[in-house]
Structure formats: structure tokens, C-alpha cells
Amino acid sequence: MKKWLIPILCLCMAFSTAAAKESETLIVLAGDQITVGSEAIRSDASLPVYLTLETQTHEDVADNLKDLENRVVNITSAGSYRISGEAQDVQIAVRAGEDDDVRLILDGVNITCRTAPAIIGESARDPRIAGEYGLTIELADGSENFITGSHTKAPDDDETAVEYDGAISSQVSMGFEGGGSLTIDADNEGVEVSSGHMTINGGVFHIAACDDPLNVSEDGVGTLTVNDGYVYSAVKPLEGGEGDG
User: Fold this and answer.
1) What is the per-residue burial (b if ≥16 Cβ within 10 Å, else e) of 114-144?
2) Distance from C-alpha of 35 to C-alpha of 219, rounded to nearest angstrom
3) What share of the chain in percent tops pLDDT 70?
4) pLDDT at 100
5) Residue 120 and residue 75: Cα distance in Å, rounded?
6) Residue 15's pLDDT is what?
């Protein structure tokens, strides 16, 4: 009986792993090309992943970048999204429903966004309980990931506009998992959760920021929970910056 037990268990685990990968949506960045699954990304807002072009200009943007259009990959439905590849002037934006759990699996990405955060979490499920989250960024085991991001500012005359201060910035509670590494180069804050909680359950982080490397609910009550992983931070000199990296 035991002779058969191990092969059966291995077979079950293999099927389970294959099923998990089949349920993921693959997003590949390749310079000017972005594919979702096996097809080029489309601009159809009815799709769970679609493309928009957005100019994100404010007073901190250099003159030569003020008219720059970022390619924004909008993720609007619950699920797991495995992202790989390299691209410039690209932003990943999670704009899901309030009951949607979204998992971004970074599996060898190098994203640069020169006028805004490279990853934003605009909406997703948010339990608002310290240590819990509906938006997950998983660093795939063994992967090396690089994020270079900026920030946005709200116009003085628009009280409803949202600011995103970090290279990775979220309006909902966010958690990090996995056994990969993430290097962040930020011109303001490294990772920011402006409303909610941040949890780190694994990974190795190298953050170079001009302001806070990790910032949680600056204008409210938020908790940073670190259960596992390593965080290394360095301050970058910037005229007018707070320099408390």
C-alpha cells in the first residue's frame, strides 16, 4: 500500500500546481508590447485586464515629461495575475470591486514609471483589520524584481483627488508574500498604504527612497505588520525632500 501512496500524493500535488497556474492570468511586458494570456492587451474596458493611456502631470514632473503618456494596465476583477518582463512608462493599476481579492505575482519584472507610481492599488477588498488584506503582491520564489516609480499630487482646487506618494502606492490594505526579492527606486516614498494596513509575510526588499521607505496611513490609523522577510533601506538625496529614508 505504501508503495502506491507516494506516487499518488506526488501526482495529486502536480495536478494541484497545474490547476493553480491555469487559473492565473499571465501578463507579459516586452518593451512596447504587452500581452495578456496569448493576445496583445486591448483597450476594451469590459475586459478584466485592459489598457488605457494616461498623462499624469504635476509640479514635480520634469518639463520634458509633462506630456508623457503612461500605458496603464488596469486590473478590474478578482484573481491571480502573474506579471513578468520589462517596460518603461508603464503602470499596473488595480481597480477591482470592493469584494474582490487580487493577487499580483511579480515573476521577474522590471517596471519603470517616471511620472507616477509603477503599481497602484485603487480598489479591492479591504477588511481593515491589521494583518489582513485583499490586495496581495507575491514575489515569486527565486525571482528578482525591480520597480522604479514616481508619485502623483492632487490639484489644490480638487479636494476629491487622490495622491499616490510611493513607487508602489495603495488606497487599500496590502500584503507582501513569497520568497523572491524586490528592489525599489523611488523619488518620494518607497511603498505606501495611504488608507489601511500593510503586512509583510516574506521576501527580501531593497528600498532606496527620498522619503519613507515604508509608509502606512499617514493621515489615519494604520498598522505595519512584519512577520517574515528582510527590509533594507537607503535614503536618496533630493532637494526639497524630507530625506528620512
Assistant:
1) bbbbbbbbbbbbbeeebeebbbbbbbbeebb
2) 37
3) 84
4) 98
5) 10
6) 41
At residue 22, does pLDDT exceed 80?
no
Q: Report the C-alpha gap between 161 and 157 in whole angstroms.
A: 9
Whether the Cβ atoms of residue 139 and residue 184 lie closer than 8 Å to each other: no
- Indicate the pairing of strand 70-75 with strand 49-54: antiparallel
Task: Enumerate residues 6+ apart whose C-beta is below 8 A from 231.
Answer: 200, 205, 207, 213, 214
Helix (H), strand (E), coil (C) string for the chain: CHHHHHHHHHHHHHHHHHHHHHCEEEEEEECCEEEECCEECCCCCCCCEEEEEECCCCCCCCHHHCCCCEEEEEECCCEEEEEEEEEECEEEEEECCCCCCEEEEEEEEEEEECCCCCEEEEECCCCCCCCCCCEEEEECCCCEEEEEECCCCCCCCCCCCCCCCEEEEECCCEEEEECCEEEEEECCEEEEECCCCEEEEEEEEEEEECCCCEEECCCCCCCEEEEEEEEEEEECCCCCCCCCC
Residue pair 172/124 in contact by the 8 Å Cβ criterion: yes
Rounded CA-CA distance 181/186 in Å is: 16
Say which residues have a Cβ less than 8 Å from residue 140's Cβ, sequence separation at least 6: 82, 105, 106, 107, 108, 178, 179, 180
Q: Does residue 82 have a pLDDT over 70?
A: yes
CB distance 74 to 120 below 8 Å:
no
Question: Could you tell me if 97 and 126 are in contact, meaning their C-beta atoms sit under 8 angstroms apart?
Answer: no
